[in-house]
Every structure is written in structure tokens, then in C-alpha cells.
Amino acid sequence: MKYVIFLGDGMADYRIAELGNRTPLMVAKKPGMDRIAREGRTGLFRTIEPKMMTGSAIANLSVLGYNAAELFHGTEGRGVLEAASLGINLQQSDMAMRVNLICIEDGKIRSHSAGHITTEEAHVLVRDAQDYFKDWNLRLYPGLSYRHVVVVPDGEFQLECFPPHDYVGTPWKELAIKPMTSEGQSTADLLNRLVEASQPFLEQHPLNLKRRKEGKQAANSLWPWAPGKKPVMQTIQQRFGISGAAITAVDLIKGLAIYAGMKPIEVSGATGLYDTNYEGKADAALKALEDVDFVYIHVEAPDEAGHEKNLPLKIRCIEDLDRRLIQRVLLGLEEKGWESTVAVLPDHPTPIANGNHTREAVPVAIRFPRLPPDSVTCFDEESVKSGSLGLLSGPQFIESFFKFQIPNS
């Protein structure tokens, strides 16, 4: 028995007047997703509970059946997951955070990604920042593109932080990190000083001066957020007796896979953007299924289009995910003669209207072998409301997904 989850990050959306009061999922051409709905069972899934942050870390943890509130004590924990993906060995006393390279102009956040700075350029800036801040009580680690990690030894993780993608256009000085307990004041002060001190250093860095001359955004500020401590998690194998692998271009998903005991698989050309290697991810998933039972395929592109408020691009990303990846995997499963359970869903909505993550329940479809489908024939936010899965929450999705296990012949 083989298991595949297709996760289209941020695919869900609101109805949009420009689309005739329909959502991007309603108008996109996506026969692969619709086939899973038509041949399977559908419903809604509340991946982010009230009072939890609307982050991808929390949502993807929910998809895999983990309780983010228990693991990260109410914080998102994204930085800890990304630290794991970079091979950073955290001590229990360490506090880890994501730190973005962002662009600030006229005192306001212009971009959460400094125009999606390249990994090569970002490594130059983070490497030099490591040296610049070497005497501070923190450690910087380079990651991919604008996404990096900062570790504060003995740091307090209960902090109120502000994800930069949610505050584009906001004056940066209004977004100072705040301690949630009195013990966190020194950590908050350290991090706020880091943000302020990074700006003149990065603004005058030769690489940023070159970027400005080329008409590109300067990556002129470090921006830490998503604090957490190292979690203790049961693996997918321990919970369900299932061996697994994950395919993603996003560090936090890779880190989640590592903590969940799944093998992260690197795919050449996987970018996390609209130009990602969809076919490469599909082929890597089919190859991985020769050795493992379960593959989690994460595609970031629709989420990035949502953050950019780019409606045509979001629709294109949904269609590319379907045509170039989902249909390719479904065909491969059939050609190999593997009996399989497959599911498709977003982790959260990223509506074009505001460009931010929201917590509304997302559509989900699961195609089980040898089980009759329900009456739903399309995969979108509205159609699945009449599905037989109803409204799922907590571990109900993953427990349903793995419920019908048929031994391999």
C-alpha cells in the first residue's frame, strides 16, 4: 500500500468579484485534483485552531496530525524546524528563530524577501553578518534565498513577533519584538538591537550597493520571528507503522519531516516559487515510493503568489501543480500497479485580497482504494462542504488518511 499527500501551500482563497464571485480553485483547470475528489471522499479541515498563529509551520504540523500548541507552547516554532533542515544541532536551552533578509524603504517594509534574493547573494550577506555580530550572544546560520536562522543560547521563546510577509507597507519601528513574560525582556531587547544594527551594516554592504545600481531591492535588514525551542515528537513510523519521505523546497517543511522521521528528498530545480521543478518533484516521489510507504509532496508556489496578491499567477500555480505534478504522479501510480491512498489539500488559505495567511478551514479530498466515493465531483472550497468527511480538526485528517491500510502484495 502506498500513500501520497499533495499539499498546495496557500491554495485556498476567498470568492473574488473579478472571477465572477468564484475562488482561484473554482476557476483553475485542475482535472487531477477534481479526479481525487470525484473518486474519493471530501470535506473541510480546520488546520489552524483559534488563538494559534496562522503560519505554515502550525498548519503543516496539523496536516501530519501533530499538536503545535503542545510542541511549541503556543508559538509557531518555525525557526526550530528550519534549524533542523539546516543540520543545526540545537541544545534544549537554545531558542531558534527564522530570520529573513528583508527590504526596508522610507522606513517601511517593502518586501519580506528582498525581491526573492538569490541564495548565493544571501549567503554573502549572512556570512558577513555572522562576522559583524560575532561578539553578540547569538548565532546566525545561512539558509535558502531570504530564509535564514538565528539561535540565541538560553533565549526566551515566548515573544510576540511580526512575520514580515504580513506587514508589507508597515513602518518597521511599529513592529518591535515584545516579551510575553518578564523573563523575555532581555531576549526581546537583544533581537530588537539586532534588527536596528543590521540596517546600516547591510545598507552599505557592497553587494547591496550593486543591487541598487541594478535596480533591485536591497536586502537591508535582518528580521527575526517565529521563536521556539527544540520539540520532542513521535515519528510517523512510531505512530502509524508507516515509513515516509518528504519533498519540498521550503526549509521548515524539511525540518518538520526530519523531526517526524521522514526522509527529506532534494530535487534539483525545486525553488519554492512558480518556476519550481514540478516534474522533478513528481518523478522523485515515484522513485521514493519504491523504498517507502508514504510521500508528502509540498509545493509552495500558490502561497507565494498569494503573498504577492498576484491572481493570474496563483491560478497558474494551481494549474501547474495539477498538470505537471499531480496528474504525473497519479499516472505513475497506475503504471506501477500500486494500490494507493492519495489526498490533496492546502495547509491554509492565502487570500489574494490581503496577501496574508488566514485560519479558515481548507478543502480536502482523500481517494481510498476499494471504498466508494461520496457525491462531490470538484475540488474547491464550496463543493467539498457536502462531502462525507465533514469538518475535520486536530489529528482527524491524518488518522483518516492512514486508516485503511492494505498490506503490499
Descriptive notes:
The chain is α/β, with parallel strands linked by helices. The chain folds into two domains: about 1-65 and about 235-400, Alkaline Phosphatase, subunit A (3-Layer(aba) Sandwich); about 85-230, no CATH class. Helices cover about 35% and strands about 20% of the residues. The chain is built from 14 helices and 15 strands. The mean pLDDT is about 95.
Rounded to the nearest angstrom, the distance between the terminal CA atoms is: 8 Å
Q: Please give the CATH architecture of the largest domain.
A: 3-Layer(aba) Sandwich
The tally of beta strands, per DSSP, is 15
Number of domains: 2
CATH homologous superfamily placement of the largest domain: Alkaline Phosphatase, subunit A
Tell me the series of helices and strands, N- to C-terminal: EHHEHHHEEHEEEEHHEHEHEHEHHEEEH
Mean pLDDT: 94
- Rg, rounded, reads 21 Å
**Low-confidence parts, pLDDT < 50 over ≥5 residues?**
none
Q: Would you tell me which CATH topology of the largest domain applies?
A: Alkaline Phosphatase, subunit A
What labels would you give this structure?
single chain; 409 residues; alpha/beta; Alkaline Phosphatase, subunit A; 8-stranded mixed beta sheet; 14 helices; 15 strands; 34% helix; 20% strand; globular
